[in-house]
Protein 1
Amino acid sequence: RARPYVDRAKALLVRHAPTTSLWAHIGLGGGVEPLPGHLALLEEIASDPALAHVYFDISWSEIAKYVVATPESVALTAAFLERNPTRVLFGTDEVAPRDQASYLAIYDRYAPLWQKLSPRTSELLRIGNYARIFDQGRQKVRAWEAAHVR
């Protein structure tokens, strides 16, 4: 069922290499639960050299709900992240939080996942990948502007 969607998305991403792309919510949307083999599809993208410019985020409470649903889902997600520590970013995706507790709720919901990750992978996921990708993005934009904008 997802294969045509994934194939079209991959083709689009390949056409736009080397543009850094962030596949939001690991490819899930509102009311869309992961299909069987969803992590295998993510692994396929993460292991494809033609898609080395594609990153994923695990923001949004709906994603957290599926990741921490069972000990098995936590373990499978942690294993994927350990194999791909530089390819995933954490974010809250919280719109207009009422207070800090609301803002941090998704972080707290991921507690079982944080406990399964190595310190290196946890740091990259929560801080390091964001800093690297967005800092490089700023540099690329400034370089493009210097070359193309008067």
Protein 2
Amino acid sequence: MAIFLVIFVHCLVNSADAADVNHEKDPTVKQKEDGIIKSLVQIGIPMFFYISGIGATFFNTEESNYGIFVGGKVLRLLVPFVIAIFVFLIPRLYFGQQYEDFTRNDGEIQNNYWEYQKGALPTIYLKLSWLWYLPALFIDCMLTYPLLRWSIRRSK
């Protein structure tokens, strides 16, 4: 359900942009679009964090320490994040240069992919787009580990 809601919100935003809806002629369309997006975003993303929290409670903090917890989160969140930057994000930015100004390095269209990649890497953190969720979830897990450990001890 959470995945469906997040995908639906992204499709709604992109379809309005692709349809070239003129919000100045009919401002009620923009108000309805914003209302739907705000309503659905308030459900989808927090639901992901909730599901992640439920999943974290299966980690046995009594037998495994913080280092093992961090190692597991690095393997599950940060490794896919780094791989996705090179496999999905940079190619998406490269092919989007013709259509979106923010994808261009120094405001110029780069035709050589490898040169584009070298130029994009220093500022890639500004263009994370949908990948923001993985490092945010990692930071959230690191900050909430003491609460997880306390709650598991308390439940026993």
